[in-house]
Write a sequence for this structure.
């Protein structure tokens, strides 16, 4: 009796330790494993197409807009908030620059208008959430969802504007020719370079700056953050301004990609951004998640769409699958919390 | 570990479910504005395309974004199909301007393209769809034949900054004046039922003697019908619409609206697929192919309900 008890006890203690060491690794890199597995499945289904350079470039072109929206959304979600307005702010940035271009404004100003308008809208969100003491960011950004969409339609009269100069289109549509590989032309989409750069900058910002660490701290425990002397309002204003800025940049990319500003741009895009952040493992309760995870979430969604398109599957399946994965990803988060509090 | 195995199971499930539908690279892709499910118009385009494909022995794949406003999804679908190397693309663009770059990409990849239903902005691409001028002329002729010569009539237009709105207004106007009728009012109802109603109320206040009104779509025509009904003038003023939607067909059968004009969406799908094959053989196509319109009256409205 005594002997078996002695041997059983250390084993029982070892197991949670092993789990505890594995969880952070899975948290951080599990998404890469998922992507790898998805790629294998897709490659098996479409061996001649899936891994062609053209198709891989397509995935990155198609996910560029969601990448930018999702990284902004990630900041808001890190603070246990949300920004429902990013799709409308995208449209506002896009229409503003398209209308300005049609009015004959010089291209450097047209180019900057998208991001600047996005930043302004985000700043207004931040002020509303903090200074107007809105009970939850949901309310302020829901208001902005309608206001920005209405404003976009107002300035454009609800009609599309087409034809942008090449420098304005550069970030969204240009491709850098790298050379030939067999029969394929290797074109690197500039939008991919933009995405990677933005993610690197945000990675450094969140991990290695005081402000970045404060964003995590606020999401983890706003009360504690306040008591420890963090100016929570100021941090939140920065967070929502950056989120708006990213939405404005996404508007610029989308405008470049489509060579136009069109009124229906970005409808429902906020939900795709939220989905990517959640799939990427960020906690909806705030304070937890990584930039790499968000990027992974965006790519997972892009691969689902690409894979189903290549196999001519109805888009309805795409919606069902993404919905399922969101629920599943959050369920994993719940399980993870239970495991880590059990100890 | 649970993360990855669980997710993998989900994907495997999803992809196995659809593996059976995998098409070869030699298919003609029809990308519509919206899914056929829930919209009889797109269902007819799809049916027309599939039947023509079967008849000509060519594989046809019909796609659509989840909603007509999802421009980005349609662009992605086309890019992915181009990567696959398809035989041709029949496209009803959700937004002609925004789709233009990806259509250019298709042309650059030597994939033949035609537009159906909505004309794109790319130069040299054939448009297959309703000749709205001819359709509106058909409606105008019906009015000409059924009211006394020289009567006063009214026109309710759609949004005339759009090509469809302009074409229907032009066709209606020249048809009505061409047979000697007098257009005493021409106003826009912006395609909207409530606005059509309000516009009609104003028209009958100012012009009590009108004998007929042509509205550029059925929604406005149904609104106008409501206005005439509450003013007690429905038996004196004939209402003709455009689209032959189910509500309008029911109204025509009930003897309220008198006529409407139906497009032929099945033809768009069929001629679209046929045209791609012609282009692939190196034939040239006219810039515009009319898919035809039919006048819908009490005699044939049952089919459109």
């Amino acid at each position: 009796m005594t002997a078996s008890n002695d041997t059983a006890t250390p084993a029982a203690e070892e197991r949670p330790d092993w789990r505890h060491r594995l969880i952070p690794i899975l948290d951080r890199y599990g998404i890469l494993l998922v992507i790898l597995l998805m790629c294998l499945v897709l490659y098996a289904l479409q061996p001649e197409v899936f891994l062609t350079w053209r198709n891989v470039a397509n995935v990155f072109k198609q996910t560029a807009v969601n990448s930018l929206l999702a990284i902004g959304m990630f900041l808001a979600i890190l603070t246990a908030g949300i920004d429902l307005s990013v799709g409308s702010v995208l449209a506002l940035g896009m229409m503003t620059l398209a209308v300005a271009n049609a009015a004959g404004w010089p291209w450097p100003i047209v180019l900057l208008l998208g991001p600047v308008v996005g930043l302004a809208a985000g700043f207004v969100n931040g002020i509303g959430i903090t200074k107007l003491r809105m009970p939850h960011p949901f309310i302020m950004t829901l208001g902005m969802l309608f206001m920005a969409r209405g404003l976009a339609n107002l300035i454009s009269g609800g009609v599309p504007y087409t034809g942008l100069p090449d420098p304005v289109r550069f970030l969204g549509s240009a491709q850098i020719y790298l050379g030939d590989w067999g029969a394929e032309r290797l074109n690197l989409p500039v939008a991919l370079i933009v995405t990677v750069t933005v993610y690197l900058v945000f990675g450094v910002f969140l991990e290695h700056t005081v402000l970045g660490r404060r964003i995590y701290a606020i999401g983890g425990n706003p009360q504690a953050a306040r008591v420890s002397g963090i100016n929570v309002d100021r941090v939140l204003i920065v967070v929502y301004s950056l989120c708006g800025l990213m939405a404005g940049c996404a508007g610029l990319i989308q405008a470049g990609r489509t060579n136009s500003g069109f009124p229906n741009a970005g409808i429902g895009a906020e939900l795709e951004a939220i989905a990517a952040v959640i799939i990427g493992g960020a906690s909806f309760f705030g304070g937890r998640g990584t930039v790499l995870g968000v990027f992974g979430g965006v790519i997972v969604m892009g691969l689902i769409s690409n894979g189903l398109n290549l196999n001519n599957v109805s888009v309805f399946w795409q919606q069902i699958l993404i919905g399922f994965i969101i629920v599943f990803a959050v369920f994993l988060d719940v399980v993870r919390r239970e495991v880590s509090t059990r100890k | 570990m649970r993360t990855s195995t669980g997710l993998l199971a989900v994907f495997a499930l999803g992809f196995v479910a659809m593996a059976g539908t995998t098409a070869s690279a030699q298919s003609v892709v029809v990308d519509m504005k919206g899914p056929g499910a829930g919209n009889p118009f797109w269902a007819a385009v799809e049916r027309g395309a599939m039947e023509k494909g079967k008849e000509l022995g060519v594989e046809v794949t019909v796609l659509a974004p989840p909603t007509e406003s999802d421009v980005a999804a349609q662009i992605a679908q086309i890019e992915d199909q181009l990567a696959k190397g398809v035989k041709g693309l029949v496209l009803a663009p959700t937004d002609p301007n925004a789709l233009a770059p990806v259509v250019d990409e298709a042309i650059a990849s030597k994939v033949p393209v035609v537009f159906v239903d909505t004309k794109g902005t790319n130069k040299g691409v054939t448009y297959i769809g309703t000749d709205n001028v001819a359709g509106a002329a058909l409606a105008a002729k019906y009015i000409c034949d059924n009211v006394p010569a020289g009567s006063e009539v009214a026109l309710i237009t759609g949004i005339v900054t759009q090509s469809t709105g302009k074409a229907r207004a032009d066709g209606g106007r020249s048809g009505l004046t061409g047979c000697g009728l007098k257009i005493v009012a021409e106003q826009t109802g912006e395609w909207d039922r409530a606005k059509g109603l309000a516009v009609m109320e104003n028209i009958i206040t100012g012009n009590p003697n009108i004998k007929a009104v042509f509205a550029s779509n059925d929604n406005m025509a149904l609104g106008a019908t409501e206005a005439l009904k509450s003013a007690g003038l429905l038996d004196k003023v004939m209402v003709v619409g455009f689209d032959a939607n189910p509500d309008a067909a029911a109204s025509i059968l009930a003897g309220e609206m008198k006529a409407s004009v139906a497009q032929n969406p099945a033809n768009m799908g069929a001629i679209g697929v046929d045209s791609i094959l012609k282009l692939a053989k190196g034939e040239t196509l006219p810039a515009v192919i009319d898919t035809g319109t039919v006048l819908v009256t009490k005699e044939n409205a049952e089919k459109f309900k």
